[in-house]
Amino acid sequence: MTERIDALICPRWTIQVEPSCEVKTGLSLAIDEGRIIDLLPRAEAESKYAPNAVHERPAHVLLPGFVNAHTHAAMTLLRGIADDMALERWLNDHIWPTEMRLVTPDFVADGTALAVAEMLRGGTTCFSDMYFFPDTVADVAANAGMRTVVGMIVLDFPTPWADNPAEYISKGLELFDAYKGHPLVSLTFAPHAPYSVADETLKRVRKLADELEVPIHMHVHETASEVADAVAQTGQRPLARLDELGLVTPALIAVHATQLLDDEVQQLAVAGAHVAHCPRSNLKLASGTCRTADLVAAGVNVALGTDGAASNNRLDLWSEMSFAALLGKNHVGNAEALPASTMLRMATINGARAIGLDQQIGSLEAGKSADAICVRLDAPEVTPVLDPLSQLVYSAGREHVTDAWVAGRHVLADGALTKIDEALVLERANDWAQRVMES
Amino acid sequence: MTERIDALICPRWTIQVEPSCEVKTGLSLAIDEGRIIDLLPRAEAESKYAPNAVHERPAHVLLPGFVNAHTHAAMTLLRGIADDMALERWLNDHIWPTEMRLVTPDFVADGTALAVAEMLRGGTTCFSDMYFFPDTVADVAANAGMRTVVGMIVLDFPTPWADNPAEYISKGLELFDAYKGHPLVSLTFAPHAPYSVADETLKRVRKLADELEVPIHMHVHETASEVADAVAQTGQRPLARLDELGLVTPALIAVHATQLLDDEVQQLAVAGAHVAHCPRSNLKLASGTCRTADLVAAGVNVALGTDGAASNNRLDLWSEMSFAALLGKNHVGNAEALPASTMLRMATINGARAIGLDQQIGSLEAGKSADAICVRLDAPEVTPVLDPLSQLVYSAGREHVTDAWVAGRHVLADGALTKIDEALVLERANDWAQRVMES
């Protein structure tokens, strides 16, 4: 007697990530009601289950969907607005003024839709966002079938989203209540950065984050000048200040962290804090180099993020994975550092762990949500396949992703987005480009 | 009276590279008998020319094809054979032993065909190769309609191609004679590296290169240990030795050059030598960081190469361009360094200049060979288009290349290779993978 289930995915190779990145051949993934219920040899799967849909992927690797641990999704609409300049000038002279003029819920909706289309096509099934109008981000992503972690953002200065810290926080708490228990949306507190949020506000954020049991997602030590300014003004490095305020805990997702002393690497490790490493953005803004291999060696959980498209200029975890691997090896002068399996973990389970969802996503294990992708390895760029894991990390790209499932829903099917009107998304993005260029 | 011509390409945007990287709108490129004969506004083109073919590319950028200034094409068959290890171990324990066992003209033919398929699909229209059986490389590439510069390789030790320096050189000279005047094939001398070729041989190579007027394509200062070993053994850095031997001239293409003192940057600039920068390979092998921005500032012509697929693991100039830009900015701590236009030049005209073909390719100018590509900018990953040049360098990838022409021949047409049996190429590569894994 076979058991009726929603779907069976039958790839050539499977990489579960947890319990290991071992490449297995000939397994099938059984999905029912949004969850992974089994992973077993194909012949056994066929005698045990009666699937409503069978997805044959004979030249493909099946693996967990990627987790983008740091982005500002709606900023896709500002892709290419200001390149080849350092962070302070980029932010103060270009990004913030443009945002003040243009950012509305419509801007965020259309920019997020574009980002979701880009990310799902590239195999990212979950993103941790930090932007204005997070309610809109959550709605757009959830409607497109994508998993998202939205930030309850907090800043000391007024923006189109709120006027003062109290308003940011109260709007954040409304958001928390609105999405409590949502199957695809969860939350972080997202105080922007040490230099843009005052002590009192950070204390309140920390207290609330404890109560609500949400992570704190924050830019930390992105540039040398930001650290130097803090030292000049207060005598203290930002991470030391955050520690005094009680923020350096397992709840902290320290984004960027390009400026870390040996003690600070240890401090993050001992505290159990997470790092969201965004190599392309850091390099492009010449912000510095994250000590990825040292952090991993110290036991810090390092996840990968794309940052926003205005500083990257792509939301592509494949590119981040190869940049993180190659840059990280050369930075410590050791080609054995950060091997392929470590990098694939960074792009999947480590991201899930940073955002507190490692019991639900980040690996292909029975009981977890069915957030998975298929990647074809039969194109010239990924031929021959001597080692599927090597091929994923060093040769493949977003263009080889064929399918994505989020909570069992087939949101990218053989290259086509199933829940997004791609033509409409592009048309609206192009309309915004006119306004950006005229503004 | 209109003039009959072979083809007219009508893109939305055109970037000529020379005389500048300015983005122009609404131009058409007129091609006849393999050459660019005109670049002019579309309305004028229609009244002036009667083209046999009109290629409408309304969402595309037209630009010169990319030049891969350093690769070992046939090594695609070893893609993924040995990752996550330093150059010496990778080369001595894995690559060279495997090559000694397997490399034959058939291996080189099938590996080169795969490489050509990968490169053309990604917009590379010319590659400078260094490998065994260069006669086979030239034949395969030319038959596929791709432009190539093959190396007359020289080594001190025996390989499947030749037994001793004299035989390498005589086989090289036969190759030179065989391909003299070939429209798609030209030659370099390719002594492998300072550590693998003796003084007497290098002197002879230099003399012959002068007589034949060909560049000298050589690995130079790839790793710190190679430089340290030379200093320990001879008291001299390899570049100083090459200079004494008369090799540091405008004919030299110094590949990698990750280890350069200030004086050596100046030395290369004064000599008019070229650097073939291969950032992905250098980072992956943890070999060091080329001083790209310093070289450019000193006036050295810096081109881009992929190196072989066994150390990269892709033959993708788009990835090299973004690695070179982002790594280079961060290395000098200046986000304004190496702007997008500089990077596009590295991938095109600078490569052409290094291999001595800058009068024929590398830019879209009347009189040059019609070696051009189209890149679509209407996919989610490259939307919206605030700046087409930024989009090419920082957002686009090989997957956005739709068309390639080499000497006017449409070798990639709307994503499909026209002169290569892709299925057969993949089948043969997969057969070799079996032999590689069994060996």
Give helix % range of chain A: 25-40%
Uncertain ranges of chain A: none
CATH superfamily of the largest domain in chain A: Metal-dependent hydrolases
SS-based class of chain A: alpha/beta
CATH topology of the largest domain in chain A: TIM Barrel
Annotated CATH architecture of the largest domain in chain A: Alpha-Beta Barrel
Largest beta-sheet details of chain A: 9 strands, mixed
- Alpha plus pi helix count of chain A: 16
Total number of β-strand segments of chain A? 17
Biggest interface, CB < 8 A: A-B, 73 and 73 residues
What is the compact description of this entry?
Chain A is 40% helix and 25% strand. The first copy, chain A, has 439 residues and is an alpha/beta fold. Chain A folds into 2 domains: 3-64 and 372-406, Urease, subunit C, domain 1 (Roll); 66-354, TIM Barrel (Alpha-Beta Barrel), CATH 3.20.20.
